[in-house]
Design goal:
alpha+beta; 7-stranded antiparallel β-sheet; 5-stranded antiparallel β-sheet; 4 helices; 15 strands; 31% helix
Length: 224
């Protein structure tokens, strides 16, 4: 079992356990029954095990490092479909998809060694910003910064009905965009295009099949 799957399982079990404890507490409060010492002991023991597992995964994530990005990716896990890594100065951008959700893993490079990422759904503000196209909800574009540098990853998420098909994406900087997509079923298409910029010019423009993506690039680049 890879680290990513183990981390997910622990997170799901913890969430389920918290819900169960909350439900048990509410039921006992309604019935005005006190929890017996034996049950209280079991709850305490299981809670300690859950917390220990959670802290263990966080210790591994924050302390273990790898001599290469390939080794970090292999340890983290390849259970989800992954796109081609794009390596910057201080980080690496690695997209992946799972059950119709597109994630982005940002691997950090510290002292020539790679750290495990914290994955996040495309669109959440994690060292970056994104916005929907002003004219349609089919496109989301954004910026994820390359560590503490002025360079960044530009990405475009296409969620149109045929979004899994590779399309022509270009920008005003003549960047080379990498395509990552898959057809999971009707309404579950996943695709993204991503590239690397040394800096975002004030007049930056992004196109998909000659349609200009309308987002406020200045605002996205200023909110770090």
């Amino acid at each position: 079992m890879d680290f990513q799957r183990f981390d997910t399982i622990i997170g799901n079990i913890m969430f389920f356990w918290v819900v169960c404890c909350a439900a048990a507490w509410l039921i006992n409060r309604k019935k005005k029954k006190a929890v017996t010492g034996k049950i209280r002991k079991w709850i305490l023991c299981i809670s300690i095990i859950m917390l220990a597992s959670y802290f263990l995964t966080n210790i591994v994530r924050n302390t273990i490092s790898f001599t290469s990005l390939e080794k970090a990716i292999s340890f983290y896990g390849k259970t989800k479909q992954q796109g081609h890594p794009l390596i910057g100065e201080e980080t690496a951008f690695v997209p992946e998809s799972d059950e119709g959700i597109l994630y982005v893993n940002i691997y950090e490079k510290r002292k020539d060694k790679w750290k495990l990422p914290k994955d996040f759904s495309l669109g959440r503000n994690v060292a970056g910003n994104s916005a929907m196209d002003k004219n349609t909800a089919d496109y989301r574009a954004g910026i994820i910064w390359d560590g503490n540098t002025d360079s960044c990853y530009i990405f475009l998420h296409d969620s149109t009905e045929n979004g899994w098909k590779k399309r022509n994406v270009k920008d005003s900087e003549n960047s080379n965009f990498i395509y990552f997509g898959s057809k999971l079923g009707k309404g579950l298409n996943v695709s993204t295009y991503y590239s690397y910029l040394k800096e975002v010019p004030s007049d930056y423009k992004l196109y998909i099949d000659d349609y200009e993506i309308e987002v406020d690039w200045r605002e996205l680049s200023e909110n770090r």
